[in-house]
Amino acid sequence: MLMGTAINAATSISFSITTVLTLLLFIPINGQDQFTIIEATIDEIQTAFDQNKLTSTQLVEFYITQIETLNPRLRSVIEVNPDARSQAEKADLARKRNQGRRFLGELHGIPVLLKDTFATKDKLNTSAGSYALVGSVVPRDATVVERLRDAGAVILGKASLTEWYSFRALGKIPNGWCARAGQAKNPYLPSGDPCGSSSGSAISVAANMVTVSLGSETHGSILCPADHNSVVGLKPTVGLTSRAGVIPVLPQHDTIGAISRTVSDAVYLLDVIVGFDSRDYEATSEAAKYIPVGGYKQFLNENGLKGKRLGVVRNLFSNALNGSTVITAFENHLNTLRQSGATIVDDLEMANVDVISNPGKSGELTAMLAGFKIALNEYLQELVSSPVRSLADVISFNQNNADMEKTKEYGQGTFISAEKTSGFGEKERKAVELMEKLSQDGIEKLMTENELDALVTPGTRVIPVLALGGYPGITVPAGYEGNQMPFGICFGGLKGTEPKLIEIAYAFEQATMIRRPPFVTPFWIDER
């Protein structure tokens, strides 16, 4: 039985242009001044709550209307939570009872979408975008979901993703495609790459279908879709946020992070979900030492670029981007960074970039194949009930449901390769050692020798560097190409350097304010 309110991506909804534009722009509150929800930040929403210009219930109703209106085209939401309205009503009641005696928190009453790999002990499915896990019952909420609920956030629903993180068939499954939602679309350029795997999380935030969302990253799955859909993506140091209750890929690399329209919104979300978790003991106990007293919002500093040393590693991106709009914009942004007080250390070269950028050579793919099988089997075994209990079961399901899962078109070659592995043996241990050495000789040596606070790169070329060592990164909208395809600027650093990265990213965002919402309506055409 399908749980939750599943969104039929093929449904055709008819609205008049006037009605749609009204829905997109304003919600009138009891005859008072209208509050604009489109592009509203968490700070603005909380102010509207305090001034009785908006309620959480009205905010949720707005987003549900947005989803009903836009999702048939964008296909970025799999299910809407049938309990979202009651959660919003509960938040409104708590605010009324509180009557301004104390601040209930930035996320109180704020709708959040979750990538469809975060376990929720409710009426929603947790399926990795596949029908194989529809109807499975999780034992409990993922830890980060528990923390969102404790903070008073409203769980709006589940966002689509590239099915099974695209790991079912690497290089074969199109970015943004999953069986349950279909092919997700970039809201700025329908023919453009939405990237993956947290594509639905990024698209939904970009198109104002939710305030903020949670994604996960093993190798680019937050940073890339955020870059491609003109939103902020914050990938934390591995272990800073708990992975307990999240469908895994490779625990050594998996991390949970925020996707939002502004740096401040991403930081508010990060502050709620970070911290030690006994269910993810080893990683979170190690990373807990990095969490600053007072949290991360103290680093939202408009002057955060002053005194920072930023490294530009040309051999990471020049060959791919030379002469492009992205490079031209990047050079202009470097000037902005300088004018804001940063020192740019240019023309740096990182050792072994070609190896680092190739998962087959770096050892990453070898570790992933074995690690995925082990971690997924453990996750499936812990489910209260499930149609599948192992990777082998999932492979059989896909084979037996080839039409539904498009197995003939996209295959499941990576799954089959992973199933053939037999644990973490000598080959896998050597792969991990190689990744560690590449990181030590690469980003760690480069940043230490040049006394850098962060690396800065256009687009997504730094992703493999950050993936290998579990390093943090944050991408901020940086412009649009001639066809309106977005691109971002990425700041990456060593483990635990989130305070510096937040200062840098926030100051850059405030100095540029480049992001603009996409123009998308129910009448939006599939190609342009």
UniProtKB/TrEMBL annotation:
This is Amidase domain-containing protein. Transmembrane segments: none annotated. Residues 59-461 form the Amidase domain. InterPro entries: Amidase_dom, AS_sf. Pfam families: Amidase. It comes from the Eukaryota. It comes from Citrus clementina.
